[in-house]
Structures are given as structure tokens and as C-alpha cells.
Amino acid sequence: MRNVALLIAYDGSGFAGSQRQVGVRTVQSVLEHALEGLTGESPEVARFAAAGRTDAGVHARGMVVNFRSERLLAPRSWVGGLNARMQDDIRVLDAVEVEEGFHSRFSAVARSYRYEVLTTRVPDPLCRSHVLWEPRPLPARDALVESFRSIVGTHDFTAFGSAGSSERNPVCTVMEADVEDRGERLVFRVKARSFLYHMVRRLVGAALEVGRGRFPAATLRELLEPGKHRFVPPTAPARGLVFWSVDYRPPYAGLFGSLLGGAT
Known about the structure:
single chain, Alpha-Beta Plaits
């Protein structure tokens, strides 16, 4: 039985999330159906696993999945064969056979997300499924950036999690957190070892409240101290969020080369 890893990207607009759910279209169900069509092997044999999970409407640029198969195919045959069996809102970018011990989720040491906000006076119809349009002015942009950067480190992120998280421990280590101000666009970037359910969207939601001038720059940091701040962070809409990339420990660090880069 071979262990095959795929690098995939998808537009989450047409998916009810990444994990298999009964009666709805998900990333996992689409991939499993394509795998079964290509190999003749059932999902039970394939034992599909993913580096992370995304909600309905959330996109991915560098998601890694792995599965088991008896078939011996060249990377380009996996890529071409699977893509030919799926709609064009999901693509396999690369494929590689990996050691038996590799697991797309448990071998990962960090995951990166990106969230984009458009701050134009009028929304851009070409971006409506992939960025959040912010119709209100953001008079406190510097405070927003300062606030978001303050979450770097190991903290209890209970205030930013939601029920349903697969992570039992609310303590997360954030290695990078930054906001690039491009004038009409704000690009939030965050990298952590693990994330709570809705954590990134709530971090962005809280930072935007700071940017609107409703709360001081210290708000996000205070929310990391249970009981100190009673503000409940809003959850930013799914459409602006992209699962950007995964980092792996050696010997898998260069798994997909330049195709699987950092949060840039």
C-alpha cells in the first residue's frame, strides 16, 4: 500500500466545508469520488486525511492531503487523472509518494492563513467571493496592525474559539501575525502550530473593531487573559479566508518545493 500526498487548491464558495458531510458537497467527498474513479479503491481503503479543515466558503491555496493506494502512478498521472474527474473549482497542483509515516495533519509543525479585506468606497464585484468588503472607514489602522501583531506567542485563545473545535487544548502558539496595509486592501497573515475553530476569523473580526475605533489596540492582547476583557469578538465572514500553506518537519520540509511556500 502506497502513501501519496497531494497539494491542492480550491475555491471554497461551492463547498460546504472540507470534511465529508452527508448529503452535501465537500472537498473530501469530491476528492474521494475522484480517487475512487481513478483507482477503483473505496474511501475506506484510501483513508483520506488533510492538513487542516476549512468551513463552508473558506478557500485554500496550499492544502496538503494524503491517502493510501495500491496503484503505482507517476505524479503527473495522479494530477491529471484526478483533475479530469473534478470540477474546476478544485485542482490538484502536485503529487508525491511519501513514506508510510507521513500524515498530512500530524506531521505538520505549522499552518498559515491569509485574510483579505477591501476598504474601497464601492465593493468590487470581481472580489465578492474572496475578500471581505469593509464599507465603513477604518480610522485606527495603526492600532489595528499593532493589535493583531500582539498575539504572537503562546497564549490561551479560548476567547477566539468556537464550539466544535477539534483542538482540545485552547493554548496555541502563534509564530507570525502581521497585517499588510496596501491602501485599499488589508492583508492579514497568521501562522501557528494549531488553530481553534473560527480562531482566525475571530482574530480578524476583533482587529477590525479596533480599526473602526471601537476598542483600543490592547484589546486583542487583553482577550488572551481570561476574565480581563468581556468583549466577545465577532466572527469575520468565511469568504475572505484562505488556508495558505503548511510547514512540515524534516524529512518532509521540502515536500512540494517552492509550490508549498510560506504565508506570502
